[in-house]
TrEMBL record:
<feature type="active site" description="Nucleophile">
    <location>
        <position position="75"/>
    </location>
</feature>
<feature type="binding site">
    <location>
        <position position="101"/>
    </location>
    <ligand>
        <name>L-glutamine</name>
    </ligand>
</feature>
<keyword id="KW-0456">Lyase</keyword>
<dbReference type="GO" id="GO:0036381">
    <property type="term" value="F:pyridoxal 5'-phosphate synthase (glutamine hydrolysing) activity"/>
</dbReference>
<keyword id="KW-0378">Hydrolase</keyword>
<comment type="function">
    <text>Catalyzes the hydrolysis of glutamine to glutamate and ammonia as part of the biosynthesis of pyridoxal 5'-phosphate. The resulting ammonia molecule is channeled to the active site of PdxS.</text>
</comment>
<feature type="active site" description="Charge relay system">
    <location>
        <position position="167"/>
    </location>
</feature>
<dbReference type="InterPro" id="IPR021196">
    <property type="entry name" value="PdxT/SNO_CS"/>
</dbReference>
<dbReference type="GO" id="GO:0042823">
    <property type="term" value="P:pyridoxal phosphate biosynthetic process"/>
</dbReference>
<feature type="binding site">
    <location>
        <begin position="129"/>
        <end position="130"/>
    </location>
    <ligand>
        <name>L-glutamine</name>
    </ligand>
</feature>
<dbReference type="GO" id="GO:0016740">
    <property type="term" value="F:transferase activity"/>
</dbReference>
<dbReference type="GO" id="GO:0008614">
    <property type="term" value="P:pyridoxine metabolic process"/>
</dbReference>
<dbReference type="Pfam" id="PF01174">
    <property type="entry name" value="SNO"/>
</dbReference>
<feature type="binding site">
    <location>
        <begin position="46"/>
        <end position="48"/>
    </location>
    <ligand>
        <name>L-glutamine</name>
    </ligand>
</feature>
<keyword id="KW-0808">Transferase</keyword>
<dbReference type="InterPro" id="IPR029062">
    <property type="entry name" value="Class_I_gatase-like"/>
</dbReference>
<dbReference type="GO" id="GO:0006543">
    <property type="term" value="P:L-glutamine catabolic process"/>
</dbReference>
């Protein structure tokens, strides 16, 4: 399958590598027309205010709101998928959740920890960089992982969102789960 990585900002190459390790073709998506060529889209981390601005500029907001393409958001990508953002307006409204940005506190701005993720494994290395957490989940949202009672991974139908950066490690099992489980299930 061809899987896209939204390539407006953030860690694109690393995600493409994980797609390839999962046995599929990864392409950098820069124009909305490319959405027709892919079976799923990864929204990378970076800075979600900038990401949203660029998505508005290049027409991705409307295109993705109207699309039922499976999507996987990491960190800033998770923020973009949320229905609500604390103190701001929600954006794509694909995950029925409220996210809070930069919410692990200044002392632990960035950290790594081993995560248990339901349906994937109990030894996933989570790299958190000024990460958001999921403060609330609505109906039909499945909680897949928590860190100190903070929700850091969720799934709702064909949408997956995590607070951390799986692409920054060599462990591609989260991407593999998105492609070989979530996308295949929706076919
Ligand atoms: N702190 C960033 C934001 O709120 C997200 C950080 C990241 O993607 N690593 O947009």
């Amino acid at each position: 399958m061809k899987i896209g990585v939204l390539a407006l900002q953030g860690a694109v190459r690393e995600h493409i590598r994980h797609i390839e390790l999962s046995g599929h073709e990864g392409i950098a998506v820069k124009r909305v027309e490319q959405l027709n060529e892919i079976e799923g889209l990864i929204l990378p981390g970076g800075e979600s205010t900038t990401l949203r601005r660029l998505m508005n500029l290049y027409g991705f907001k409307e295109a993705l709101q109207q699309s039922s393409l499976p999507m996987f958001g990491t960190c800033a990508g998770l923020i973009v998928l949320a229905q609500d953002i604390v103190g701001e307006t929600g954006y794509l409204n694909k995950l029925n959740i409220t996210v809070e940005r930069n919410s692990f506190g200044r002392q632990v701005d960035s950290f790594e920890t081993e995560l248990e993720i339901k349906g994937i494994a109990n030894d996933i290395e989570g790299v958190f960089i000024r990460a958001p957490h999921i403060a609330n989940v609505g109906e039909n949202v499945e909680i897949l992982s928590t860190v100190n009672d903070k929700i850091v991974a969720v799934k709702q139908n064909q949408y997956l969102g995590v607070s951390f950066h799986p692409e920054l490690t060599d462990d591609y099992r989260v991407t593999d789960y998105f492609i070989n489980k979530i996308i295949k299930e929706t076919h």
